[in-house]
Amino acid sequence: MRTLAAIVLLLFTPLAAGSDEQVFESEAAFVARAFAGAEPQAQTLWVQGALRERLEDALGERVGLRLRYWLHEGRSAWVLDRVGKDHPITSGFVVGASGIEQVAVLIYRESRGWEVKHDFFTRQFLGARLNDKGRLDRTVNNITGATLSVRAMQRMARAALILHEQIAPRPER
Questions:
Q1: What distance lies between CA 120 and its chain's CA centroid?
Q2: Of 90, 88, 147, which Cα lies nearest the Cα of 121?
C-alpha cells in the first residue's frame, strides 16, 4: 500500500510543481505605476525584418508578429515573457533616455528561481543600456539555483532596450 501511494505521489508531483503561478502585479497596475497615473494608450509595434532578427537573438527564441507597448514623454513600458527553465516569466520594463528605469517580475511560473522578483536582484538593471555589441553594458550577478531565471531576465532587459531604440523619438541634431 505504501508503494502504491509513493507511485501516485510521483506521478502527480510534476503537475503540481508546474502549476505554481505567482502573480505579483497585473499588467495594468505595472503600467499605471510606470507612468504615475498618466497611463498612455497601448500601442502596437510590428516585429519584422532586422528588428525581428535582433529580438530573436536577444531572447533566444522566436517572437510574435507584434508587441504591445506604452510610450509617454520619451519613456516606454514593455511587458515581456521569456521561458526560464520550463515556464514563462512575465516581466515589465520601463526604458527612458538614461536606460532601464524600472523592472518588475509580474508573474512567475517556475518552481525555482523566484528570487529574481526581489529588489536586490532587479536593482542591478537600473540604468542599464546596450553596449556597442548590442549586449547589456553591465554584469548582472547570478543567484545560486536561479541561473535560468537570471538569464531570462537578462534577455528580456536586452530586448526591452532594443525595442525602446526602435520606437523612442530621436533627439534632433
A1: 16
A2: 147
pLDDT in tens, 9-29: 334 444 444 457 899 999 999
What is the per-residue pLDDT across 80-98, written as a single tens digit (0 to 9) for each? Answer: 999 988 999 999 999 999 9
The answer to whether the beta carbons of residues 128 and 100 sit under 8 Å apart is: yes
Strand ranges (DSSP E) for the chain?
A: 22-23, 42-46, 66-72, 75-83, 88-96, 99-108
Q: Is the dihedral of CA 56, 62, 51, 151 positive or negative?
A: negative
Cβ count within 10 A of residue 68: 13
Tens digit of each residue's pLDDT (9 = 90 or more) over 33-92: 999 978 799 999 999 999 999 999 999 989 889 999 999 999 999 999 999 889 999 999
**Rounded to whole angstroms, how far apart are CA atoms 20 and 93?**
23
d(CA 116, CA 128): 17
Could you tell me the three cell numbers for 154? 537578462
